[in-house]
Amino acid sequence: MTRRAFFRFYAELNDFLQPSQRFQDAERALHGTPAVKDIIEAIGVPHTEVDLLLVNGESQGFDYRLQDGDRVSVYPAFEALDIGAATRVRPVPLREPRFLLDVHLGRLARLLRLLGFDAAYAPGAEDDRLAVSAASERRILLTRDRQLLKRRLVTHAYCLRSQAPLEQALEVLQRFDLTSRAAPLTRCLRCNGRLQAIGLEEACDRLPPGVRTRVTRLAECLDCRRLYWDGTHYPRLQRMADDLLAQGVAGPAADAPDRHRTRTPGS
Description:
The protein is an alpha/beta fold and 267 residues long. Helices cover 25% and strands 19% of the residues. A 5-stranded mixed β-sheet has the order 2-1-5-3-4, with no helix packed on it. Strands 7-6-8-9 form a 4-stranded parallel β-sheet, with helices on both faces. Helix 2 crosses helix 5 (165-175) and helix 5 (165-175) crosses helix 8. The model is unreliable at 253-267 (pLDDT under 50).
């Protein structure tokens, strides 16, 4: 007789399932007693997206060995919901939101830097290097590559749903509740270093001749020494940052689908 377990995925975890499999019980044949983590990822959901597992109504960890007839409820990250004494399967959130972006997210890296967040980006980095760097540097890995998120080394990560950089930036702001921690125009857009204000006299010889007479504020990247001043581009960048933060505070549109609203376990 075939041994089986039954899975139900909640809220935005359904993004990772085929349309025909979403918001309904999924039956899975068991061979031996596999760890629940292995089956969840075989179905298509990266472990980094999961925060809580209930097996037959009881909280379990990723190492739980599935038995015939088990019913597994899989929940995403809970940002505002108190789940009491239940066993969270995610590690404790990192104190400081520091990001590492994969090779396809260069424009998102610049947007996060514009908002003042530490966003490391190495265009030529292979997946092995990204996983090691995210773990050793305690960074949150951002990617659209679901296979990368299934690597055991990766503990803090987020799978971006959108392909548009501005929408991706909003996803990150809302997923990690970052709007109140933003500090626009305090990081170098090129290298990710912090900016420090300096006097005009300190860098006068490094400014283009036409700029020296009209600059009122000047900053220097502490890493690459690039200069930033309040030129004609400054208001545009400030408006972009302000718009992103305003939308981040507003949250998803009122008519957004219910798939992004996490329900109380058991409901």
